[in-house]
Design a protein that fits this description.
By secondary structure, this protein is of the alpha/beta class. Helices cover 38% and strands 14% of the residues. It has helices at residues 2-5, 11-23, 28-33, 36-49, 93-103, 125-132, 148-151, 169-177, 215-223, 241-244, 250-267, 284-304, 337-352; strands spanning 76-81, 109-112, 118-121, 136-137, 140-145, 188-192, 205-209, 234-238, 271-275, 308-310, 317-318, 321-322. InterPro entries: SGNH_hydro, SGNH_hydro_sf.
């Protein structure tokens, strides 16, 4: 590569070196050896000669893992405490190893991480599956996850023109076909009772619905680790419909919302977004005023806690009464296909206008 550094570019040698990079690890010393200015010149040469199309090459260097990984081993799991204030890596490691021995057998390796988590390398797939189901280590509630270094890698896309718009739909479709994830994709989850349980098809967003759940029950589910809050940018909460039909006062319902907010703030660093309770066609004449009062107080509560509140209530009204075309006639409470689609579009709009 001396010719390149001296200003005499050998195209054949350059492409050969690129191909070699694809099959070998890219160490930090390689970057030091070839100056950043030289790399920039190379990229400009590549960009000026080839537009992005279906044949665009994605040359991905070796993974830059967030967690340490073991080359050639897929039986890795990261263990972390459900309580964000408790770090597994600072607990008694001998005791943890003994508990794992009694639960799943002796793993191949246990490594505490600086993040407060523990990386466990299992001896085989059977042990890996067993450990993935473990929810307790002693008295500590834990959750398990697959290290990102196993499921993804970070790399550079070459051959991309300098004036390209990464949000162009054609370009996004090409990249998705080659399994490239948009770095700026927002990750969100809808945590709710059963109202939006059929909401799906939102990029980067999942729905975790718990039919029949009240605000208090949802708080319990979050406390026990039944709700996945890992690696999220936004948590969208829609709950309270089942509290309206009870004899609970508005103040009591808002106190439950306060407990839920407190628990969520302890369990996740994601931005919290609360949506209003929807009208209830089944008993609107009886509960309409109560729903409005709860929504008004919930909005104030969100403001006091610096949380985003989104009012969906009016979108489900027609001439100031619940729009029957959006609700299932069977029970006059849950959403039908049209109502689910409207809810879905509202959530897409919420996520779209939020910054990470």
């Amino acid at each position: 590569m001396d010719k390149t550094i001296s200003g005499q570019f050998d195209e054949e040698e350059f492409y050969k070196s690129l191909n070699e990079t694809d099959t070998t690890d890219m160490e930090s010393s390689d970057y030091e050896k070839h100056g950043w200015s030289t790399q920039r010149k190379r990229r400009k040469r590549m960009a000026s000669t080839s537009p992005l199309n279906d044949n665009t090459l994605l040359n991905t260097p070796s993974p830059l893992p967030i967690h340490p990984s073991v080359k050639g081993n897929d039986y890795l799991l990261v263990l972390q405490s459900v309580d964000p204030n408790t770090k597994l890596s600072t607990q008694n490691q001998i005791k943890i190893q003994k508990i794992l021995l009694e639960t799943v057998g002796t793993p191949k390796r246990i490594k505490p991480l600086n993040s407060g988590k523990i990386l466990v390398e299992c001896i085989d797939k059977s042990q890996w599956k067993q450990l993935k189901r473990v929810k307790l280590i002693g008295e500590l509630q834990i959750r398990t996850s697959v290290p990102k270094s196993v499921t993804s890698s970070i790399g550079v896309i070459y051959n991309v023109p300098l004036d390209i718009n990464v949000e162009d739909e054609d370009i996004v479709s090409v990249l998705k076909a080659q399994k490239v994830r948009n770095f700026f994709e927002k990750r969100a989850t809808i945590v709710s009772a059963s109202i939006p349980k059929y909401v799906s098809g939102i990029d980067g967003c999942t729905t975790q619905a718990f039919p029949g759940a009240t605000i208090g029950r949802l708080t319990e589910l979050i406390s026990s680790g039944k709700v996945d809050l890992i690696s999220l940018d936004f948590v969208i909460v829609h709950v309270g419909t089942n509290n309206i039909s009870s004899s609970q006062s508005v103040d009591t319902i808002i106190s439950y919302f306060g407990d839920l907010i407190h628990k969520l703030k302890k369990m996740t660093f994601a931005k919290l977004i609360f949506t209003s309770i929807l009208p209830r066609p089944v008993d609107h004449m009886k509960t309409g005023a109560k729903v409005n009062k709860v929504n008004t107080e919930l909005k104030r509560l969100c403001k006091r806690n610096n949380l985003l509140y989104c009012n969906l209530y009016r979108s489900f009204l027609l001439d100031n009464i619940p729009d029957s075309s959006l609700f299932a006639p069977r029970d006059g409470l849950h959403l039908n296909f049209a109502g689910t689609e409207l809810f879905r579009k509202k959530i897409i709009n919420i996520i779209k206008h939020q910054s990470i």
